[in-house]
Specification:
The protein is α/β, with parallel strands linked by helices. 49% of the residues lie in helices and 11% in strands. The protein has three domains: 79 residues, Fumarate Reductase Iron-sulfur Protein, Chain B, domain 2, CATH 1.10.1060.10; 150 residues, Rossmann fold (3-Layer(aba) Sandwich); 106 residues, 3-Layer(aba) Sandwich (Rossmann fold). It binds iron/sulfur cluster (2 copies).
Length: 368
């Protein structure tokens, strides 16, 4: 996977009008200058690691009237810095260890029943923080898809975003290879980041569970909430719509924040900025807090829910669907590390009991 940061920098330097529309929306650009200014800087200093302060949220790309793609440039610049050995930051080590454990013998698991061509891929954060939600989703989906399989593995987006493209490419194509060899044609995801990786780099059909799930009957909350759309699915309006339908079917009314859908804001966790600059990451959360006001925030990314939850009342939509009253009362138990690893390990046995899979082994055994 080649990156063309110099070509992208030239294109942004030529096409950006310096109109400030994106700058006014962005904490990173407000502090560091317009996309045109940054492109000129990167052309002068090709190994600059400034891009590691950008959340990679793509709001700039979404609002630009000239179809300039500053986020694409900032992503390419991260890759360029890594390729030139300037983009490795010791602070990211915990995140990379977390990622590695997701594909390890201990935590990865491929549970595939006979005749399975569709899998649920819940990602890393959801099974760790809310293992019961994974089981709830599996039992609901099994009603529609009797031979449903489940794969616990990591999509390796952290490495993707940290510019470690060779590692990402090896791991993600290895994952795809196993799935294709096993006859899998469709991947159902819970995490917006996994969705983006499968959509942009995969060759299998991918869909979120939110487009398939139905709100369990008997939920009639009569509460007003607001919705935080994760950046990973910024441009996927069908997912925004499906989530709103679920929330309304659960009995809630939705009051939209100023930034939603295509124009959503970063929750603060994007691009792993917080590992290098906590204050900058927190400034994004603060914007969200101001827009949400007193309303409860519902989101559909376990990472966003956790990050926003540090400053406001925020819940995952799956908690709202399966434990509505406790969710509205902010009483749902959400596990934190290191318990998350224990939950992921134990989930394998619980899933095996539900699925009775023909194949049940870790990634390393699947790679053979
Ligand atoms: S909105 Fe587009 S043209 Fe305006 S400053 Fe941003 S990138 Fe440049
Ligand atoms: S991707 Fe997000 S954080 Fe990065 S420059 Fe664009 S709007 Fe700002």
């Amino acid at each position: 996977m080649k990156t063309h940061s110099v070509d992208l920098a030239r294109s942004v330097a030529e096409n950006c009008l310096d109109c400030s529309i994106c700058v006014k929306q962005c904490q990173f650009l407000s502090a560091n200058g317009s996309p045109r200014h940054l492109a000129e800087l990167f052309l002068k200093e090709p190994d600059s690691d400034l891009a590691f302060r950008c959340s990679l949220c793509r709001l700039c790309t979404a609002v630009c009237p000239k179809d300039v793609d500053p986020a694409g440039l900032l992503m390419a610049q991260r890759c360029q810095a890594v390729n030139h050995d300037k983009g490795h930051h010791g602070q990211h080590r915990p995140l990379l260890s977390y990622e590695k454990r997701g594909s390890s013998r201990l935590l990865s698991w491929y549970g595939l029943p006979q005749g399975c061509d569709t899998i649920f891929f819940p990602g890393c954060a959801l099974p760790g923080s809310r293992p019961q939600r994974v089981l709830d989703v599996v039992s609901q989906l099994q009603g529609e898809i009797p031979n449903l399989g489940v794969v616990l593995d990591c999509c390796t987006k952290p490495s993707h975003d940290l510019g470690r493209r060779d590692y990402f490419q090896t791991m993600f194509s290895g994952l795809l290879e196993i799935l294709k060899r096993c006859g899998i044609k469709k991947v159902l995801v819970a995490c917006p980041n996994c969705f983006r990786m499968f959509k942009e780099y995969g060759t299998l059909e991918v869909q979120t569970i939110y487009e398939l799930l139905k709100a369990p009957s008997g939920t009639a909350l009569q509460a007003e909430v607001t919705l935080h759309d994760p950046c990973g699915v910024r441009f996927d309006s069908q997912i925004h719509g499906a989530v709103r339908t679920l929330v309304r079917d659960a009995g809630c009314t939705v009051r939209e924040m100023k930034h939603h859908g295509k124009n959503t804001l970063c929750c603060g966790e994007g691009g792993a900025v917080g590992y290098l600059d906590k204050d900058l990451a927190r400034s994004w959360v603060e914007l969200r807090r101001q827009e949400a006001g007193e309303l409860k925030v519902i989101t559909y990314c376990a990472g966003c829910s956790h990050y926003l939850g540090q400053s406001m009342d925020s819940s995952h939509i799956l908690d709202l669907l399966y434990e509505p009253d406790r969710t509205m009362a902010a009483k749902v138990k959400v596990a934190r590390a290191p318990m998350t690893y224990w939950h992921r390990f134990r989930l394998k046995k619980k899933l095996a009991a539900i699925l009775a899979p023909h194949t049940a082994c870790c990634r390393q055994d699947m790679e053979g």
